[in-house]
Amino acid sequence: MHGKATQPGTAQSAGFGPNGPRIVVIGSGVSGILAGVKLRERGWRDFVILEKAGALGGTWRDNVYPGVACDVPAHVYVYSFAPNPAWKTRYAKGPEIWQYYHDVAARSGVLDHIEYGKDVTNARFDGARWTVTTGDGSSYEADVVIAAAGRLRDPKLPQIPGMDSFAGPSFHTARWDKSVSLAGKRVCLIGAGSSGVQVLSAIAGEVAHITQFQRTPQWVMPVQDAPVPWWERLKYRLLPRTVHETYRKMLDFSNERGALAFESKEARAERDKMCSDALLRIRDPELRARLTPDYDVGCKRLVMSETWFEQVQRPNVSIVSEAIERIEPEGVRTTDGTLHACDILIYATGFDAHAYIRPMKLTGEDGVTLDALWEDLPLTYRSVSIPHMPNFFVLNGPSSPGGSASIVGIVETQWGYVAQLLEQVAAQGVTIAPREDRAREWLAEVRERAGKSVWATGGCQSWYLDKTGTPAYDAVSLPQLQSSLAAPKMDDFEVRAIPAR
Ligand code: N01
User: Nearest C-alpha to atom 46 of ligand 1 is from which residue?
Assistant: First the structure.
Protein backbone atom coordinates (compact mmCIF):
# COMPACT_ATOMS: atom_id res chain seq x y z
CA MET A 1 0.00 0.00 0.00
CA HIS A 2 1.26 3.50 -0.77
CA GLY A 3 1.50 6.16 1.84
CA LYS A 4 -0.10 4.22 4.69
CA ALA A 5 1.12 1.22 6.59
CA THR A 6 -0.31 -2.10 5.34
CA GLN A 7 -1.34 -2.79 8.91
CA PRO A 8 -0.90 -0.17 11.52
CA GLY A 9 2.22 -0.95 13.51
CA THR A 10 3.47 0.75 16.62
CA ALA A 11 6.88 1.65 17.95
CA GLN A 12 6.35 -1.04 20.59
CA SER A 13 5.31 -3.80 18.17
CA ALA A 14 8.30 -2.90 16.01
CA GLY A 15 10.45 -3.42 19.08
CA PHE A 16 11.77 0.13 19.38
CA GLY A 17 13.00 1.03 22.84
CA PRO A 18 12.72 4.41 24.60
CA ASN A 19 15.79 5.57 22.69
CA GLY A 20 14.00 5.25 19.36
CA PRO A 21 14.84 2.96 16.44
CA ARG A 22 18.24 1.33 16.35
CA ILE A 23 20.18 3.24 13.68
CA VAL A 24 23.48 2.65 11.90
CA VAL A 25 25.07 5.70 10.28
CA ILE A 26 27.83 4.95 7.76
CA GLY A 27 30.60 7.55 7.75
CA SER A 28 31.67 10.33 10.10
CA GLY A 29 32.24 13.22 7.70
CA VAL A 30 30.14 16.38 7.44
CA SER A 31 26.95 14.35 6.72
CA GLY A 32 27.51 11.63 9.32
CA ILE A 33 28.27 14.13 12.07
CA LEU A 34 25.13 16.04 11.11
CA ALA A 35 23.06 12.84 11.40
CA GLY A 36 24.61 12.16 14.81
CA VAL A 37 23.91 15.66 16.13
CA LYS A 38 20.33 15.58 14.92
CA LEU A 39 19.61 12.08 16.26
CA ARG A 40 20.88 13.06 19.69
CA GLU A 41 18.93 16.32 19.58
CA ARG A 42 15.81 14.22 18.90
CA GLY A 43 16.61 12.07 21.93
CA TRP A 44 17.38 8.98 19.85
CA ARG A 45 20.51 7.63 21.44
CA ASP A 46 20.46 4.08 20.10
CA PHE A 47 22.74 4.68 17.16
CA VAL A 48 26.27 3.96 16.08
CA ILE A 49 28.38 5.73 13.47
CA LEU A 50 30.64 3.28 11.64
CA GLU A 51 33.79 4.92 10.32
CA LYS A 52 36.28 2.97 8.25
CA ALA A 53 39.22 5.24 9.03
CA GLY A 54 40.80 5.94 12.39
CA ALA A 55 39.43 9.48 12.74
CA LEU A 56 36.34 11.47 11.83
CA GLY A 57 36.13 14.25 9.29
CA GLY A 58 35.83 12.64 5.83
CA THR A 59 37.21 14.98 3.19
CA TRP A 60 38.88 17.16 5.81
CA ARG A 61 40.61 14.19 7.38
CA ASP A 62 41.77 12.74 4.05
CA ASN A 63 42.90 15.93 2.32
CA VAL A 64 45.88 17.30 4.21
CA TYR A 65 47.96 18.39 1.23
CA PRO A 66 49.78 21.75 1.42
CA GLY A 67 47.36 24.58 0.68
CA VAL A 68 44.22 22.55 1.33
CA ALA A 69 41.37 24.96 1.91
CA CYS A 70 37.70 25.30 1.17
CA ASP A 71 36.82 27.51 -1.75
CA VAL A 72 33.31 28.01 -0.39
CA PRO A 73 33.20 31.01 1.99
CA ALA A 74 33.87 29.74 5.52
CA HIS A 75 30.81 31.33 7.09
CA VAL A 76 28.65 29.32 4.70
CA TYR A 77 30.58 26.12 5.21
CA VAL A 78 29.04 25.49 8.63
CA TYR A 79 25.90 23.89 9.99
CA SER A 80 23.14 26.49 10.27
CA PHE A 81 22.73 25.57 13.95
CA ALA A 82 26.42 25.97 14.75
CA PRO A 83 27.77 29.23 13.31
CA ASN A 84 31.46 29.73 13.84
CA PRO A 85 32.37 33.28 14.84
CA ALA A 86 36.05 32.33 15.04
CA TRP A 87 37.00 31.68 11.39
CA LYS A 88 40.42 33.22 10.89
CA THR A 89 40.06 33.82 7.15
CA ARG A 90 37.22 34.31 4.65
CA TYR A 91 38.09 30.95 3.07
CA ALA A 92 39.05 28.51 5.77
CA LYS A 93 42.08 26.22 5.60
CA GLY A 94 41.64 22.45 5.87
CA PRO A 95 42.90 21.96 9.47
CA GLU A 96 40.63 24.71 10.82
CA ILE A 97 37.64 23.15 9.06
CA TRP A 98 38.48 19.69 10.42
CA GLN A 99 38.69 21.22 13.91
CA TYR A 100 35.28 22.90 13.51
CA TYR A 101 33.57 19.62 12.60
CA HIS A 102 35.41 17.75 15.32
CA ASP A 103 34.36 20.38 17.88
CA VAL A 104 30.71 20.24 16.84
CA ALA A 105 30.81 16.43 17.15
CA ALA A 106 32.51 16.65 20.55
CA ARG A 107 30.19 19.19 22.13
CA SER A 108 27.10 17.41 20.77
CA GLY A 109 28.11 14.08 22.29
CA VAL A 110 28.52 12.47 18.87
CA LEU A 111 32.09 11.25 19.48
CA ASP A 112 30.77 8.61 21.89
CA HIS A 113 28.77 7.01 19.08
CA ILE A 114 31.61 6.59 16.58
CA GLU A 115 33.34 3.25 16.08
CA TYR A 116 36.55 3.54 14.09
CA GLY A 117 38.17 1.00 11.79
CA LYS A 118 34.73 -0.24 10.71
CA ASP A 119 34.59 -0.54 6.94
CA VAL A 120 31.02 -1.45 6.02
CA THR A 121 31.09 -4.15 3.37
CA ASN A 122 27.51 -5.49 3.43
CA ALA A 123 24.03 -4.53 4.49
CA ARG A 124 21.15 -6.98 4.15
CA PHE A 125 17.45 -6.40 4.82
CA ASP A 126 15.50 -9.39 6.19
CA GLY A 127 11.97 -8.03 5.79
CA ALA A 128 12.04 -6.18 9.10
CA ARG A 129 15.49 -4.80 9.77
CA TRP A 130 19.03 -4.55 8.46
CA THR A 131 22.16 -6.47 9.31
CA VAL A 132 25.22 -4.37 8.61
CA THR A 133 28.57 -6.15 8.35
CA THR A 134 32.04 -4.61 8.49
CA GLY A 135 35.36 -5.78 7.07
CA ASP A 136 36.60 -6.96 10.47
CA GLY A 137 33.67 -9.39 10.73
CA SER A 138 31.53 -7.35 13.17
CA SER A 139 27.82 -7.14 12.52
CA TYR A 140 25.17 -4.66 13.66
CA GLU A 141 21.39 -5.00 13.65
CA ALA A 142 19.56 -1.84 12.67
CA ASP A 143 16.01 -0.68 12.05
CA VAL A 144 17.34 2.15 9.94
CA VAL A 145 20.57 2.69 8.00
CA ILE A 146 21.79 6.13 6.98
CA ALA A 147 24.58 6.14 4.39
CA ALA A 148 26.70 9.25 4.81
CA ALA A 149 29.73 7.89 3.00
CA GLY A 150 30.63 10.97 0.97
CA ARG A 151 30.84 11.67 -2.71
CA LEU A 152 34.47 12.57 -3.52
CA ARG A 153 35.96 9.87 -1.36
CA ASP A 154 37.91 7.37 -3.45
CA PRO A 155 41.07 8.82 -5.00
CA LYS A 156 41.36 8.14 -8.71
CA LEU A 157 44.82 7.29 -9.99
CA PRO A 158 45.37 7.56 -13.73
CA GLN A 159 46.31 4.59 -15.90
CA ILE A 160 49.71 5.68 -17.18
CA PRO A 161 52.30 3.09 -18.25
CA GLY A 162 55.28 2.80 -15.91
CA MET A 163 53.64 4.30 -12.80
CA ASP A 164 55.23 1.67 -10.57
CA SER A 165 58.68 2.38 -11.94
CA PHE A 166 59.06 5.91 -10.51
CA ALA A 167 62.15 5.93 -8.29
CA GLY A 168 61.07 8.56 -5.74
CA PRO A 169 58.02 9.01 -3.53
CA SER A 170 54.70 9.26 -5.36
CA PHE A 171 51.23 9.74 -3.90
CA HIS A 172 47.74 11.11 -4.54
CA THR A 173 46.76 14.49 -3.06
CA ALA A 174 44.14 12.79 -0.86
CA ARG A 175 46.81 10.37 0.47
CA TRP A 176 49.50 12.96 1.13
CA ASP A 177 52.70 11.57 2.60
CA LYS A 178 53.67 14.10 5.26
CA SER A 179 56.98 12.35 5.88
CA VAL A 180 58.25 13.54 2.49
CA SER A 181 60.02 16.90 2.55
CA LEU A 182 59.46 19.05 -0.52
CA ALA A 183 62.07 21.68 0.27
CA GLY A 184 64.51 22.10 -2.59
CA LYS A 185 63.09 19.13 -4.51
CA ARG A 186 61.95 18.82 -8.11
CA VAL A 187 58.26 17.95 -8.20
CA CYS A 188 56.03 16.62 -10.98
CA LEU A 189 52.36 17.38 -10.35
CA ILE A 190 49.80 15.67 -12.57
CA GLY A 191 46.42 17.43 -12.69
CA ALA A 192 45.23 21.02 -12.74
CA GLY A 193 41.85 20.87 -11.00
CA SER A 194 41.02 22.45 -7.64
CA SER A 195 43.47 20.23 -5.72
CA GLY A 196 46.34 20.66 -8.22
CA VAL A 197 45.91 24.43 -8.25
CA GLN A 198 45.92 24.61 -4.44
CA VAL A 199 49.02 22.38 -4.19
CA LEU A 200 50.97 24.31 -6.82
CA SER A 201 50.09 27.66 -5.23
CA ALA A 202 51.20 26.42 -1.81
CA ILE A 203 54.51 24.74 -2.67
CA ALA A 204 55.93 26.68 -5.63
CA GLY A 205 57.89 28.92 -3.27
CA GLU A 206 59.44 25.99 -1.42
CA VAL A 207 60.49 23.53 -4.11
CA ALA A 208 63.45 23.76 -6.48
CA HIS A 209 61.17 23.26 -9.46
CA ILE A 210 57.60 22.16 -10.08
CA THR A 211 56.20 20.89 -13.35
CA GLN A 212 52.43 20.80 -13.54
CA PHE A 213 50.93 18.56 -16.23
CA GLN A 214 47.76 20.16 -17.47
CA ARG A 215 45.73 17.92 -19.77
CA THR A 216 42.87 20.41 -20.04
CA PRO A 217 43.04 24.09 -19.03
CA GLN A 218 40.65 25.05 -16.22
CA TRP A 219 38.76 28.28 -15.75
CA VAL A 220 40.05 29.83 -12.55
CA MET A 221 37.93 32.35 -10.69
CA PRO A 222 40.06 34.91 -8.83
CA VAL A 223 38.64 34.89 -5.32
CA GLN A 224 40.30 37.07 -2.74
CA ASP A 225 41.00 35.45 0.59
CA ALA A 226 41.71 37.69 3.58
CA PRO A 227 41.96 37.43 7.35
CA VAL A 228 38.74 38.13 9.26
CA PRO A 229 39.74 41.12 11.44
CA TRP A 230 39.53 40.67 15.23
CA TRP A 231 36.78 43.25 15.61
CA GLU A 232 34.62 41.45 13.08
CA ARG A 233 35.16 38.14 14.89
CA LEU A 234 34.25 39.86 18.15
CA LYS A 235 31.10 41.22 16.57
CA TYR A 236 30.11 37.72 15.41
CA ARG A 237 30.65 36.43 18.92
CA LEU A 238 28.69 39.20 20.63
CA LEU A 239 25.97 39.50 18.04
CA PRO A 240 25.17 36.05 16.69
CA ARG A 241 22.43 37.55 14.53
CA THR A 242 25.08 39.44 12.59
CA VAL A 243 26.78 36.15 11.88
CA HIS A 244 23.54 34.80 10.62
CA GLU A 245 22.93 37.74 8.31
CA THR A 246 26.46 37.50 6.97
CA TYR A 247 25.90 33.82 6.48
CA ARG A 248 22.82 34.44 4.36
CA LYS A 249 24.54 37.08 2.26
CA MET A 250 27.48 34.84 1.59
CA LEU A 251 25.20 31.96 0.78
CA ASP A 252 23.55 34.11 -1.89
CA PHE A 253 26.98 35.04 -3.15
CA SER A 254 28.16 31.48 -3.42
CA ASN A 255 24.95 30.37 -5.09
CA GLU A 256 25.25 33.13 -7.65
CA ARG A 257 28.81 32.13 -8.34
CA GLY A 258 27.93 28.47 -8.25
CA ALA A 259 28.29 27.86 -11.98
CA LEU A 260 24.88 26.32 -12.21
CA ALA A 261 22.15 26.29 -14.77
CA PHE A 262 19.90 28.46 -12.63
CA GLU A 263 22.18 31.49 -12.68
CA SER A 264 20.93 34.68 -14.23
CA LYS A 265 22.43 35.71 -17.56
CA GLU A 266 23.91 38.80 -15.91
CA ALA A 267 25.58 36.80 -13.14
CA ARG A 268 27.07 34.41 -15.67
CA ALA A 269 28.34 37.24 -17.87
CA GLU A 270 29.97 38.93 -14.87
CA ARG A 271 31.58 35.70 -13.70
CA ASP A 272 32.79 34.79 -17.21
CA LYS A 273 34.41 38.21 -17.49
CA MET A 274 36.12 37.86 -14.12
CA CYS A 275 37.64 34.55 -15.24
CA SER A 276 38.80 35.76 -18.65
CA ASP A 277 40.06 39.11 -17.29
CA ALA A 278 42.08 37.24 -14.68
CA LEU A 279 43.95 35.39 -17.43
CA LEU A 280 45.30 38.75 -18.65
CA ARG A 281 47.52 38.66 -15.57
CA ILE A 282 49.53 35.94 -17.33
CA ARG A 283 52.19 38.06 -19.03
CA ASP A 284 53.54 35.51 -21.53
CA PRO A 285 50.97 35.26 -24.36
CA GLU A 286 52.06 31.72 -25.22
CA LEU A 287 51.48 30.52 -21.64
CA ARG A 288 48.23 32.51 -21.45
CA ALA A 289 46.99 30.79 -24.61
CA ARG A 290 47.79 27.38 -23.13
CA LEU A 291 45.98 28.23 -19.91
CA THR A 292 42.84 29.44 -21.70
CA PRO A 293 40.03 26.88 -21.85
CA ASP A 294 38.01 26.36 -25.03
CA TYR A 295 34.77 25.49 -23.22
CA ASP A 296 32.23 27.46 -21.20
CA VAL A 297 33.01 28.73 -17.71
CA GLY A 298 31.35 26.42 -15.18
CA CYS A 299 31.30 23.37 -17.47
CA LYS A 300 33.96 21.81 -15.24
CA ARG A 301 33.71 22.60 -11.55
CA LEU A 302 35.12 26.12 -11.27
CA VAL A 303 38.55 26.39 -9.68
CA MET A 304 38.87 29.29 -7.24
CA SER A 305 42.22 30.88 -6.54
CA GLU A 306 43.78 34.28 -6.27
CA THR A 307 47.39 33.22 -5.83
CA TRP A 308 47.65 30.72 -8.69
CA PHE A 309 47.95 33.42 -11.40
CA GLU A 310 51.21 34.69 -9.88
CA GLN A 311 52.56 31.31 -8.84
CA VAL A 312 52.41 29.78 -12.32
CA GLN A 313 54.61 32.62 -13.58
CA ARG A 314 57.47 31.93 -11.20
CA PRO A 315 60.73 30.97 -12.92
CA ASN A 316 60.75 27.61 -11.12
CA VAL A 317 57.29 26.62 -12.41
CA SER A 318 56.59 24.91 -15.74
CA ILE A 319 53.16 24.16 -17.10
CA VAL A 320 53.32 21.25 -19.53
CA SER A 321 50.44 20.80 -21.95
CA GLU A 322 51.84 17.88 -23.97
CA ALA A 323 50.19 14.56 -23.23
CA ILE A 324 51.94 12.18 -20.85
CA GLU A 325 53.35 9.09 -22.56
CA ARG A 326 54.69 7.19 -19.56
CA ILE A 327 56.24 7.43 -16.14
CA GLU A 328 59.91 6.50 -15.89
CA PRO A 329 62.17 6.07 -12.84
CA GLU A 330 63.53 9.62 -13.31
CA GLY A 331 60.29 11.42 -14.09
CA VAL A 332 57.47 11.91 -16.58
CA ARG A 333 57.96 11.49 -20.33
CA THR A 334 55.59 13.39 -22.63
CA THR A 335 54.63 12.44 -26.18
CA ASP A 336 57.04 15.02 -27.66
CA GLY A 337 59.86 12.86 -26.26
CA THR A 338 60.83 15.19 -23.39
CA LEU A 339 61.67 13.66 -20.00
CA HIS A 340 60.52 15.97 -17.19
CA ALA A 341 62.85 14.87 -14.42
CA CYS A 342 61.65 15.04 -10.83
CA ASP A 343 62.28 13.66 -7.33
CA ILE A 344 58.65 13.52 -6.18
CA LEU A 345 55.54 12.67 -8.21
CA ILE A 346 52.13 13.91 -7.07
CA TYR A 347 48.82 12.80 -8.54
CA ALA A 348 46.18 15.54 -8.28
CA THR A 349 43.95 13.44 -10.48
CA GLY A 350 40.66 13.64 -8.63
CA PHE A 351 38.19 11.09 -7.35
CA ASP A 352 35.81 8.38 -8.49
CA ALA A 353 32.75 10.60 -8.28
CA HIS A 354 30.30 7.83 -9.19
CA ALA A 355 30.95 5.17 -6.57
CA TYR A 356 28.63 6.67 -3.91
CA ILE A 357 28.02 3.94 -1.36
CA ARG A 358 29.67 1.24 -3.46
CA PRO A 359 31.61 -1.07 -3.26
CA MET A 360 29.40 -1.85 -0.28
CA LYS A 361 27.02 -4.71 -1.15
CA LEU A 362 23.42 -3.88 -0.38
CA THR A 363 20.60 -6.42 -0.50
CA GLY A 364 17.12 -5.05 0.05
CA GLU A 365 13.60 -6.48 0.04
CA ASP A 366 13.03 -9.69 -1.96
CA GLY A 367 16.76 -10.08 -2.53
CA VAL A 368 17.06 -7.01 -4.77
CA THR A 369 20.70 -5.91 -4.82
CA LEU A 370 22.01 -2.40 -5.23
CA ASP A 371 24.42 -3.61 -7.92
CA ALA A 372 21.52 -4.93 -10.01
CA LEU A 373 19.32 -1.90 -9.34
CA TRP A 374 22.11 0.52 -10.23
CA GLU A 375 23.51 -1.41 -13.16
CA ASP A 376 22.45 1.30 -15.61
CA LEU A 377 22.11 4.37 -13.41
CA PRO A 378 22.19 5.05 -9.66
CA LEU A 379 18.45 5.14 -9.10
CA THR A 380 17.25 7.06 -6.08
CA TYR A 381 14.19 9.02 -5.15
CA ARG A 382 15.14 12.63 -4.39
CA SER A 383 18.68 11.41 -3.83
CA VAL A 384 17.94 10.33 -0.26
CA SER A 385 16.10 7.03 -0.63
CA ILE A 386 16.38 3.97 -2.85
CA PRO A 387 13.57 1.75 -4.15
CA HIS A 388 13.50 -1.73 -2.56
CA MET A 389 15.79 -0.56 0.24
CA PRO A 390 13.33 0.07 3.11
CA ASN A 391 14.46 2.38 5.89
CA PHE A 392 17.75 2.99 4.12
CA PHE A 393 18.54 6.66 3.59
CA VAL A 394 21.39 8.48 1.88
CA LEU A 395 22.90 11.90 2.45
CA ASN A 396 24.82 13.60 -0.38
CA GLY A 397 24.00 10.67 -2.62
CA PRO A 398 23.50 10.28 -6.36
CA SER A 399 21.73 13.18 -8.10
CA SER A 400 22.39 15.56 -5.22
CA PRO A 401 22.89 19.13 -6.39
CA GLY A 402 26.30 19.82 -7.90
CA GLY A 403 28.30 22.98 -8.49
CA SER A 404 30.21 25.16 -6.10
CA ALA A 405 27.52 25.81 -3.48
CA SER A 406 28.07 24.71 0.13
CA ILE A 407 27.56 20.99 0.59
CA VAL A 408 26.60 21.66 4.20
CA GLY A 409 23.37 23.45 3.29
CA ILE A 410 22.55 20.64 0.89
CA VAL A 411 22.94 17.84 3.43
CA GLU A 412 21.08 19.79 6.10
CA THR A 413 18.17 20.17 3.69
CA GLN A 414 18.28 16.45 2.89
CA TRP A 415 18.39 15.66 6.59
CA GLY A 416 15.23 17.74 7.16
CA TYR A 417 13.40 15.51 4.69
CA VAL A 418 14.85 12.23 5.98
CA ALA A 419 14.01 13.28 9.56
CA GLN A 420 10.34 13.56 8.64
CA LEU A 421 10.40 10.00 7.27
CA LEU A 422 12.20 8.79 10.40
CA GLU A 423 9.46 10.29 12.57
CA GLN A 424 6.94 8.11 10.76
CA VAL A 425 9.15 5.05 11.06
CA ALA A 426 9.46 5.64 14.79
CA ALA A 427 5.86 6.57 15.52
CA GLN A 428 4.15 3.94 13.37
CA GLY A 429 6.65 1.09 13.49
CA VAL A 430 6.95 0.96 9.71
CA THR A 431 9.48 0.60 6.95
CA ILE A 432 9.53 3.22 4.22
CA ALA A 433 10.98 2.88 0.73
CA PRO A 434 10.23 4.93 -2.37
CA ARG A 435 8.12 3.46 -5.17
CA GLU A 436 10.31 2.45 -8.08
CA ASP A 437 8.03 4.13 -10.65
CA ARG A 438 8.20 7.44 -8.77
CA ALA A 439 11.97 7.16 -8.43
CA ARG A 440 12.32 6.57 -12.18
CA GLU A 441 10.10 9.56 -12.95
CA TRP A 442 12.09 11.75 -10.58
CA LEU A 443 15.44 10.63 -12.00
CA ALA A 444 14.21 11.35 -15.55
CA GLU A 445 13.32 14.90 -14.43
CA VAL A 446 16.74 15.40 -12.84
CA ARG A 447 18.54 14.10 -15.92
CA GLU A 448 16.52 16.30 -18.22
CA ARG A 449 17.32 19.35 -16.10
CA ALA A 450 21.00 18.43 -15.78
CA GLY A 451 21.19 17.75 -19.53
CA LYS A 452 20.36 21.40 -20.16
CA SER A 453 22.93 22.71 -17.69
CA VAL A 454 26.34 24.09 -18.58
CA TRP A 455 27.89 20.83 -17.28
CA ALA A 456 26.32 19.09 -20.30
CA THR A 457 26.21 21.87 -22.88
CA GLY A 458 29.47 23.67 -22.07
CA GLY A 459 31.70 21.54 -24.31
CA CYS A 460 33.92 19.79 -21.76
CA GLN A 461 34.57 16.47 -20.04
CA SER A 462 34.32 16.41 -16.26
CA TRP A 463 33.68 14.26 -13.23
CA TYR A 464 30.08 15.52 -13.21
CA LEU A 465 29.30 13.33 -16.22
CA ASP A 466 28.25 9.70 -15.82
CA LYS A 467 29.04 6.88 -18.23
CA THR A 468 26.24 8.06 -20.56
CA GLY A 469 27.71 11.57 -20.70
CA THR A 470 24.86 13.08 -18.66
CA PRO A 471 25.62 15.04 -15.48
CA ALA A 472 24.96 12.85 -12.45
CA TYR A 473 24.20 15.92 -10.34
CA ASP A 474 21.02 17.92 -10.09
CA ALA A 475 21.12 21.47 -11.46
CA VAL A 476 19.09 23.09 -8.71
CA SER A 477 19.92 25.88 -6.32
CA LEU A 478 19.72 25.47 -2.55
CA PRO A 479 16.39 27.38 -2.31
CA GLN A 480 14.96 25.12 -5.03
CA LEU A 481 16.18 22.05 -3.16
CA GLN A 482 14.71 23.36 0.09
CA SER A 483 11.35 23.80 -1.52
CA SER A 484 11.36 20.37 -3.21
CA LEU A 485 12.39 18.64 0.04
CA ALA A 486 10.09 20.63 2.34
CA ALA A 487 7.81 17.65 3.05
CA PRO A 488 7.68 14.08 1.73
CA LYS A 489 4.71 13.16 -0.49
CA MET A 490 3.82 9.88 1.12
CA ASP A 491 2.05 8.60 -2.00
CA ASP A 492 5.51 8.27 -3.51
CA PHE A 493 6.53 5.70 -0.89
CA GLU A 494 5.76 2.11 0.04
CA VAL A 495 5.02 2.00 3.76
CA ARG A 496 4.84 -1.35 5.52
CA ALA A 497 4.32 -2.32 9.13
CA ILE A 498 7.41 -3.92 10.66
CA PRO A 499 6.57 -7.51 11.69
CA ALA A 500 6.45 -7.82 15.48
CA ARG A 501 9.66 -9.16 17.01
O1 N01 B 1 40.21 16.64 -9.15
P2 N01 B 1 39.65 17.02 -10.63
P3 N01 B 1 40.54 17.60 -7.94
N4 N01 B 1 46.66 12.47 -17.33
O5 N01 B 1 38.93 15.79 -11.09
C6 N01 B 1 43.79 15.54 -14.46
C7 N01 B 1 36.63 19.26 -4.88
N8 N01 B 1 37.68 20.04 -4.28
O9 N01 B 1 40.99 16.74 -6.82
O10 N01 B 1 40.68 17.98 -16.76
C11 N01 B 1 46.74 13.79 -17.11
O12 N01 B 1 38.90 18.29 -10.63
C13 N01 B 1 42.52 16.13 -14.96
O14 N01 B 1 42.62 16.49 -16.32
P15 N01 B 1 41.28 16.69 -17.23
C16 N01 B 1 36.02 20.06 -6.00
O17 N01 B 1 34.66 19.77 -6.09
C18 N01 B 1 37.28 21.10 -3.58
O19 N01 B 1 41.38 18.70 -8.33
O20 N01 B 1 40.39 15.51 -16.90
N21 N01 B 1 45.91 14.47 -16.32
C22 N01 B 1 42.40 17.31 -13.99
O23 N01 B 1 43.23 18.35 -14.36
C24 N01 B 1 36.76 19.53 -7.17
O25 N01 B 1 36.16 19.73 -8.42
C26 N01 B 1 38.19 21.89 -3.01
O27 N01 B 1 41.76 16.69 -18.61
C28 N01 B 1 44.96 13.77 -15.70
C29 N01 B 1 42.89 16.71 -12.69
O30 N01 B 1 43.71 15.60 -13.05
C31 N01 B 1 36.89 18.08 -6.80
O32 N01 B 1 37.17 18.09 -5.42
C33 N01 B 1 39.55 21.64 -3.14
C34 N01 B 1 44.81 12.39 -15.86
C35 N01 B 1 41.78 16.18 -11.82
O36 N01 B 1 40.96 17.26 -11.45
C37 N01 B 1 37.99 17.34 -7.48
O38 N01 B 1 39.13 18.19 -7.57
C39 N01 B 1 39.94 20.55 -3.85
C40 N01 B 1 45.72 11.74 -16.73
N41 N01 B 1 45.63 10.42 -16.97
C42 N01 B 1 38.99 19.74 -4.42
N43 N01 B 1 43.75 11.98 -15.12
C44 N01 B 1 37.67 23.01 -2.22
O45 N01 B 1 38.33 23.99 -2.05
C46 N01 B 1 43.26 13.08 -14.52
N47 N01 B 1 43.99 14.16 -14.88
C48 N01 B 1 36.28 22.91 -1.67
Answer: 349
pLDDT (tens digit, 0 to 9) for every residue of the chain, 501 residues total? 455 445 556 777 777 888 889 999 999 999 999 999 999 999 999 999 999 999 999 999 999 999 999 988 898 899 999 989 999 999 999 999 999 999 999 999 999 999 999 999 999 999 999 999 999 999 999 999 999 999 999 999 999 999 999 999 999 999 999 999 999 999 999 999 999 999 999 999 999 999 999 999 999 999 889 999 999 899 888 887 777 777 667 666 655 555 454 567 777 888 899 999 999 999 999 999 999 999 999 999 999 999 999 999 999 999 999 999 999 999 999 999 999 999 999 999 999 999 999 999 999 999 999 999 999 999 999 999 999 999 999 999 999 998 777 899 999 999 999 999 999 999 999 999 999 999 999 999 999 999 999 999 999 999 999 999 999 999 988 888 999 999 999 999 999 999 876
CB-based pocket (< 6 A), ligand 1:
69-72, 152, 158, 160, 190-196, 198, 213, 215-216, 301, 324, 348-351, 461, 463
Based on the domain organization, do 342 and 372 belong to the same domain?
Answer: no
Total domains in the fold of the chain: 2
Half-sphere exposure of 424 (CA within 13 A, CB side): 23
Q: Evaluate whether 136 touches 66 at the Cβ level (below 8 Å).
A: no
> Based on the domain organization, do 112 and 246 belong to the same domain?
no
Sequence-ordered list of residues with C-beta below 8 angstroms from that of 268, at least 6 positions apart, any chain: 297, 298
Residue 103 is inside which H or E element, if any?
Answer: helix 94-107
Q: How far is CA 335 from CA 1, 184, 214, 217, in A?
A: 62, 27, 14, 18
Domain span including residue 412? 23-154+353-497
Same structural domain, 313 and 363: no
Residue 133 sits in the same domain as residue 174: no
Q: Compute, in angstroms, the gap from residue 71 CA to the centroid of ligand 1.
A: 14
Confidence (pTM): 0.95
Residue 5 maps to a domain: no
From 309, 328, 347, the end of a domain falls on 347
The closest of 426, 351, 88 to 236, measured between CA atoms, is 88
Statement to judge: residues 186 and 325 lie in one domain: yes
Distance 439 CA to ligand 1 centre (A): 31
Do 188 and 325 sit in the same domain of this protein?
A: yes
Mutation to probe ligand 1, out of 163, 194, 322 (largest number of atoms < 8 A from CB): 194
